[in-house]
Design brief:
The structure holds three protein chains of three kinds. Helices cover 75% and strands 0% of the residues of chain A. Classes of the chains: A mainly alpha, B alpha+beta, C alpha/beta. Chains B and C meet through helix 1, helix 11, helix 13 and strand 18 of B and helix 11 of C.
Amino acid sequence: MIIVNRLVRLLAVLLVVTFLSYVLLNLLPGDPVTQILGLSATEEARTQLRQDLGLDQPLLVRYLGWLGGLVTGDFGESYITRAPVASALAERLPVTLELLVAAQVIALGLAIPVGVAAARRAGRALDQALTAVSFALLSTPVFVLGVLLILVFAVTWQVVPATGWTPLSLDLGWNLTSVILPAITLGCGQLAVYARLLRTDLIATLQEDYITLARARGLSPRRILWRHALRPSAITLITAVGLNLGALIGGTVIIETLFGLPGVGRLIVDSIFSRDYLTVQGGVVLISVGYVAVNFAVDLVYAAVDPRIRRA
Amino acid sequence: MKRWRTPAALVLVAAVVVACSGQRPVATPQGGGSPEATGPVKGGRLVYGLSADANGFNPITDQFAGQSYSMAGTIIETLTSVDADGDWKPYLAESITPNEAHDEWTIKVREGITFSDGIALTGDIVKANLEAQKASPLNAAVLAPVESFELVDPMTVKVDLKQPWVVFPYYLDAQVGMIVPPSSLSDPKAASQKPVGTGPFLFKEYVPDNRMVVTRNPHYWRQGLPYLDEIEFRILPDSQTRAQTLDSGGLDAMGTTRDEDLAKYGGQKDAYTVHRSQGMAVAEYMFMLNTAVPPLDDLRVRRALAYATDRETVISTLRGGLTEPADGPWSKDAKWYAEGGDYPAYDLAKATALVKEVEAEKGPIRFEIISTPDPNTMQGIELAQDMWRKAGIDVSIKQADQADLINRAVTGNFAATVWTAFSSPDPDGEYIWLHQAYARPVGSVSLNFTRLKDKRLSDALDVGRTAPDEAARAKAYATVQERLRDLVPYVFVDHLNTGSVVARTKVHGIGEHVLPDGEKGLPVTGSPIPYHPFYQLWVDPQ
Amino acid sequence: MRRRPGPDSQATGVLGRTRPGSRSAAGVLGRMGPGFWAAAGWIALVLLAAVLADVLPLARYDETLAGPPRSGPSAAHPFGTDGLGRDVLSRVVHGARVSLGVGVGAVLLGLGIGAPLGILAGYRRRAADTVIMAVNDVAQAFPALVFALAVVAFAGANLRNVLIVLGVLGVPSWVRLVRGATLTYAEREFVLAARVLGARDRRILWREIVPNVAVPAASYAFIGMAVVVVAEGGLAFLGLSVQAPTPTWGGLINEGRTLLETAPHVVLAPSLVMFLTVLSFNLVGDRLRALTDVRESGLEPVREAGAAPLPSAPHEVRAGCLLQAEDLRTHLVTPRGVVRAVDGVSFTLERGRTLAVVGESGSGKSMLIRSILGLLPGSSVRGGHVYLSGDDLTARTPAEMRSVLGPRLGTVFQDPMTALNPVRTIGTQVTEPLRVHLRMGRRQARAEAARLLASVGIPDPERMLRRYPHQLSGGMRQRVTIAMALSCGPDVLFADEPTTALDVTVQDQVLRLLHRLREERDMAMVLVSHDLSLVARWADEVIVMYAGKVVERGPAAEVFARPRMPYTEALLRAAPRLSDPVHHRLSVIPGRPPDLADLPPGCAFQPRCPYAEDRCAREAPPLTGSYACWYPLDEVVVEGADSRGR
């Protein structure tokens, strides 16, 4: 039942998002013909190509045509490269997913101990130091952080490659070394966000009676923090992780550009700039599905983490 | 940078400073031998950094940029090539000869060349390629003077022109002259992704936005070539991290346009070689003005802008003093450069006087300049904006993405924009951008973006296109330069010869290639980032 | 602490009781500490600079070649110059306008739209939730760049539009975040209770949900501000921010990053200013929130050695006595001053007996229990001694204390609704002490837990072990906490108002159970209550507390029959009636409990005492014999109190 419900919602979201983005994208000045033909094409050539691509048809007709294709699993072809959109997305999705997962693992792996340490010593020197570091990380844009990290780890110490991508299927070791710097760059900002959120919630949880009572039962602070306090404090953190995962499916463009990763973010952003409408649409579908899936997962995790939250 | 800095800054930058002054990758000296001493060595692999990906590798359907030539050029070859003197020379063609009137060219195809798929290169394949090019919407304007192609004998194609065209073979040096096998012609989509040609390398792998790998063509028609076993092109759009990748040893060579890189790598002669573009291939950096809309339809305003533009300051501020100020479309070291005309060199007083004069008549001068949003471009515009402000011209900056900007340029929906152009090997390559026949009113597609309609300029361009006599052509292009200086459709800033290829010293042969008939080839060419053939590149053995 | 209706546990109650508004603002701010002032000063400086940017003696922000390009800090250009030779200081100062405007504005916009929707979705659920979250999914999945491009293409690049873009793009995150936080509270007992009691939704939202959601929301707001300011730089990079050359912090960092290796100050200056600003906002916000909110992790007390332990009077340690408290004192150091929560309490307790500790809320009873157990907040100072079978507990470290807590000292708290961890099953919670202290295996612990649950009268204990606290009634939960307290066979059971939060009909059952268990297990029990009449039945001895001090003590029957201290009498009179609401405060005693940080001189009860004389206001009465009062009541029984001229 829940699954059906979610599917209906997914379809509704897909329809609205793809339609709105299609309309808006088409209203933007410029069109793919300019990108395909460049500067030296004549007006006749442009008109001809516009016809060939079907760009002379009304917006709604084109949208419906695309939608009809989508129903049969056909995402269409890129105007620019004339390659199928679906295969372009399929090629790039693993890169972005791996980057995202690695970044989340790094961010959460550090944020949880940092948040716990800060909450445990709330208001004291360690907490204040961690707060300052968090905001320093937040105030450092990824393009600055990325360049600094490359400088230190790739140029000076030469322990990892500066840029580039080795697919997982090719070589696991090289794949990991090629994902580590971008993942750290991406994860740092999120680490700061997560640690702050966890700290706040954890401090609140540590005031609960059941924590005091756990102490009254002679349980160690370590046990209380990790087994008793962490889970009830995780709701905001889970929300934030879900939000990030969703937002980053298309939002890793700067990281991908810096590190030369062939990811979805670059594809979508480049396609927006080259007005490659169908590729953008494909990306929008991907992001929508991703969002709805992530949100679904987040709600499931909510329920798993806090049994009081029972989905209606 | 010996000034005092705040301690906090010092601490925070420690990492940077350490990294900058620390270890530097040093090329392994190969027994101290110079290339002359050891000579080219076969084998090896080259990793080459590029700034952008291609839109596809099919010369007939895909628009080629510099990076497309670098990548596809290792696989697909052209009918002609340009030599070190800037003259065209046959490449896949054995010879290309005009008739007396230069309205008919006969292309004789070189014997004994086969595509990597085993098909032999013949006249009808060349003809099919040229016909496909003419039919492609990409090149309709470029090939407008062509009437038809005709197969004279199995290895000879005759090109019938509507008018004399003395430099037609130059165009066969680029996309138009790239020859692909019949299979590519019949399946253009496949050809876009997997290029096939007669070239020194074979397609191996292509991951969009990431890399393209090509391997040695063991049956290449030029004996003994190529030297390299494999080339990997890495697409790294961010110039800063691209340079860092070179630093870290991840690249053997890369293209760049940053003056920082020229200064940095130029100073490490033991570790790097820097190959800057020169001559006709150098693009000009300028502000392009729309002469069809107010206030820039007024010559006095255009001249005032030029007077207010301090080219030397731009060069010292933005280019590290590495470039030369420009006063026309061709750089001073190019053979077509000519003095003459009255280009408004920096003179703030004259600028202010002109502005006052126009203002008295028409009120304040205000317009919008369009820029792509990347920081480097913006810096140039912001600098110019402040220079023009000092002359009393109120310019605001509007940022537009590439698609929007090109669209505006083509349809005339702009007052001024930042532009780079004029990098064709022959002045005739600029014909469509400058000729009044290509100027259309604002609102319709015009390839003459400035919409400057000047008869003397256009007549001179026609002479340059049709006159077989070199001296006559030189005179015509002198007139072109003179008119451009007088009428100021462009505010020229500098010859953008910062476009260059930086390579580790273990890489040899960049810009030192020899054409099939023995002439030295044009070193590095194209803009903004130059490209060059790869067949004579070799690397020191590890 | 999270605000929750109902009887506050006194540990935090003494602090939370007084509202900051009741004292002068200056007085409060005076205690904020230097960090707060530095941060507030920095914000004021940045704001002032942003406002006065045009009149300050700075170079024009767009004046190129004001100095040599890329030159480091100098007297003429304190932050150096950028790639075009523009004064970086001037650009940073002018950039503050856009960046602060966008940072604050976008967060407010996102909060203004996102928070109400998130609360509504989390509280209402069902249709409202589905609709809001579906719209939210649409908003999130919509390509942000297309939206930003469209806004700029159609509405132009200026501060307002950038603010709108970033604000609107932030809304979905706010909705999700606030909804998530709301969800955890919408199902909370106090909210459910309020809903069952028929409180209006609006009231519940404002009183119960909003204050609780505000904490994570505020925390996210400061993070959000930093994120937005950086994001603006990203927009600037894409050409979708304010028109150049108008500087913004994010834009400056963007511009400067290519100079990172040659002129790092161009990136560092705006980065540092931005960092300090968001950090300052966070710090100021944190401190301001702390004024209304006590945030103490309270996990581990500060080691007392560091805080100069309070001296104690010489006394005799009675070896045969099970529990002995000697001159026990607990002082809390708060921003308002020292709160004497427990002030010189002594008692003894033998095995098989029940000691009742009685007093109003805020009298220090619960604090006394926590002092004995060593469960004090970090800001407290403890004095005196507690002996368990002659062993000084106050000399133990927290780690050493843990071997006593559970195995020898069991505890039951007043509110079973909050005493159990909501996310762990009953089984996990009941077996935990067994496994930790008695080192039982999983299977053995479960069997023992089931036996324990059965012993406290819980039907079908096996099934109960798999359930979560929220699936149980209040009475059942209290039985579970009792079972947990007894699991390791303690010698002393501390029951802190064990029945206050329960239904009146259940109260008696629970007390009866506690009494039975005490007898069965031959334990001693410390029973804390504000209700003297209730405990009189079950207690052997009573101590009555007021303002942290013992004001009367003695055998239960005696104190109950013949109170000597007027406060005890008043408590007896104020015995709650069945018709009172559950959390009824003893308002029948005139006046309010005193402010423990600011006690009146003399007898603390004197301002409320109907029999007070002059001497009561001058001198504090010592605890002589069984009571502390200059003018104790007659030996006459309670009924006779009227004869004293009322």
